[in-house]
Design goal:
SH3 type barrels; three-stranded antiparallel beta sheet; 11 strands; N-terminal domain of TfIIb; mainly beta
């Protein structure tokens, strides 16, 4: 075994290094070595501007977000306090005043 990580896209074990990139010859997926280091250190969740988020932070919504299954909208500038980070596609668990418990994507918020 070469000690290189498997491809995150197809799980191939035949990856190789090319400068600062890892490359999979089977699916042609390329990824940065720093992404592997971050994944090994634990999941790092960042806001839309690249600032690292942590449990208990306050964030501000940067885009109008429609609430699925209702006619409510979370407006730009809505401040959300005391967030909790979870894994998955929607990586922020929170409560929004007037709406209730929600899950948000970190790409639509900035750290307050």
């Amino acid at each position: 075994m070469s000690g290189l990580p498997q491809c995150p896209k197809c799980n191939s074990e035949y990856t190789y290094e090319d400068g600062a990139l890892y490359i999979c010859p089977e699916c042609s997926h390329e990824w940065d070595q720093t992404q592997v280091a971050e994944a090994e250190a634990g999941s790092v969740i960042k806001d839309a501007y690249g600032t690292q988020l942590a449990d208990g932070d306050s964030v501000t919504v940067i885009k109008d977000l429609k609430v699925k299954g209702s006619s409510l909208v979370v407006k730009v500038g809505t401040k959300v306090k005391n967030i909790r980070l979870v894994g998955g596609d929607h990586d922020i668990d929170c409560k929004i005043d007037g709406i209730g418990a929600m899950k948000l994507k970190s790409e639509f918020v900035k750290k307050a």
